[in-house]
Write a structure and sequence with these properties.
It contains 14 helices and 23 strands. By secondary structure, the chain is an alpha+beta fold. The strands form 7 sheets. Strands 3-9-10-16-13-12-11 form a 7-stranded mixed β-sheet, with helices on both faces. Bound molecules: glycyl-adenosine-5'-phosphate.
Length: 438
């Protein structure tokens, strides 16, 4: 399958089956923001839940936090985003479209839209932060920004969290939340958008131990993606060169995935040193030091950050899971999602719409739902078509009520990937699925 075909197929499947819709589609839509449908919202929530569980719930050295999107404007002066969170922008004087100056076609001098050569203006720096006004007066004193990263909400709360949770350095603070960037060229479906979600963790360490923690977090985060079921050969680290480093970073590694449009970053591990806390001390006039309770030593901690895009990770999960297979001369589309990520865990079918089979199937579906296992009932169409519809959205197990069910209270469970079927007692279904999910 050609790579561009794969993206087209994913966009179409996502819309048709309720994973992802274009925002405001009835008005012509926009290419830069997307909405998650009934299956998409479950997949996204499952990714975030796994992250939260691994990063917060299963660790005693990371605390959770949820900070506001709108913050005091001085935060962004201090963080360096007002001065330095920019992309170089050029305009084509022929078609008046604007592009990032560092796009390969643009660097080659050719307009990606109208194709003319050497019609670009000189690059100017364009700040990616969205601006709005706080309160009823729209003047410059009321200007505030939509946060372009969640990290700053964590830095300004560093001492609040440390004191309240009685944590000792080294420890981390994690949060998941929306971020906004007025990207010059959004695109590739949900890969680069203007509104997106981040799952970020700031780990505060004693200066001098930062390199060691950096290595540990690199390894931990890569393993997390492998545990999601992503093919390891499609994952790699890529170090930022000196001219690629963000204004706050001393060292940075991206975790990249080989998308149909090339190797691209979807998580960054950054050594932010004491840059952010020191700048907030200077701008706020408040001390952001840690006092070691054992030695009474005072210092501004260094920060090792893990910054994952939730939407980009979801795209990685979808791209990696999508496959087409020939089975008995027929093509089936499968989303081979890790069961813990699959939006629907089980579909329940009556083989035919009579002989008490629909009632028995409904009962199983209700028992699964009562156990908080998302299950779906479907009685329409041939059984083969019902299987295919579930394969396409990634449902790991299909349960069929058939003629034997009334005789000996048993059903078949079909595995999405191996296509193997096992027969088990109706009253064992919930336990059988729960065991595999756990
Ligand atoms: N706090 C550090 C930080 O924000 P980043 O590398 O700029 O670092 C982290 O962003 C992650 O956020 C990226 O790896 C990516 O997954 C996601 N991200 C950034 N910009 C994005 C955009 N325009 N659309 C979707 N995801 C984006």
């Amino acid at each position: 399958m050609a790579n561009s075909d794969l993206m087209d197929k994913l966009v179409s499947l996502s819309k048709r089956r309720g994973y992802i819709f274009q925002s405001s589609e009835i008005y012509g839509g926009t290419g830069s923001v997307w909405d998650y449908g009934p299956l998409g919202v479950e997949l996204k929530r499952n990714i975030k839940d796994r992250w939260w569980s691994a990063m917060v719930r299963r660790r005693d050295d990371v605390e959770g936090l949820d900070t506001s999107i709108l913050m005091h404007p001085s935060v962004w002066e201090a963080s360096g985003h007002v001065a330095a969170f920019t992309d170089p922008l050029v305009e084509c004087t022929n078609c008046h479209r604007r592009f990032r100056a560092d796009l390969p076609e643009v660097e080659g001098g050719q307009c990606p839209t109208c194709g003319t050569k050497d019609t670009f203006t000189e690059p100017r720096l364009f700040n990616l932060m969205f601006k709005t006004f706080m309160g009823p007066v729209e003047d410059s004193s009321a200007t505030i920004y939509l946060r372009p990263e969640t990290a700053q909400g964590t830095y300004v709360n560093f001492l609040n969290v440390q004191g309240a949770a009685r944590q000792r350095v080294p420890f981390g603070i994690a949060q998941i939340g929306k971020a906004f960037r007025n990207e010059i060229t959004p695109g590739n479906f949900i890969f680069r958008t203007r509104e997106f979600e981040q799952a970020e963790m700031q780990f505060f360490v004693k200066p001098g131990t930062d390199e060691e923690w950096f290595d540990r977090w690199m390894e931990t985060r890569m393993q997390w993606h492998v545990d999601l079921g992503i093919r390891p050969e499609k994952l790699r680290f890529q170090e930022h060169g000196p001219d690629e480093l963000a204004h706050y970073a001393k060292k940075a590694f991206d975790i990249e995935y080989e998308f149909p449009f090339g190797w691209k970053e979807f998580e960054g591990i950054h050594n932010r040193t004491d840059f952010d806390l020191t700048r907030h001390q200077e701008h706020s006039g408040k001390r952001l030091e840690y006092i070691d309770p054992g030695s009474n030593e005072r210092f501004v901690p260094y920060v090792v950050e893990t910054a994952m895009g939730v939407d980009r990770t979801l795209l990685v999960v979808l791209v990696d899971a999508y496959r087409e297979e020939e089975i008995q001369g027929e093509t089936r589309v499968v989303l081979g999602l890790h069961p813990s990520l699959a939006p629907t865990k089980a579909a329940v079918f009556p083989l035919v719409k009579k002989d008490g089979m629909p009632e028995a199937a409904h009962k199983i579906k209700d028992a699964l739902r009562a156990a908080a296992i998302p299950a779906f009932y479907d009685q329409s169409g041939a059984i083969g078509r019902r299987y295919r519809r579930q394969d396409e959205v990634g449902t790991p197990w299909c349960i069929t009520v058939d003629g034997e069910t009334a005789e000996n209270d048993s059903v078949t469970i079909r595995d999405r990937d191996s296509l193997e079927q096992v027969r088990i007692g109706t009253d064992q279904v919930v336990g059988w699925i729960r065991e595999r999910l756990d």
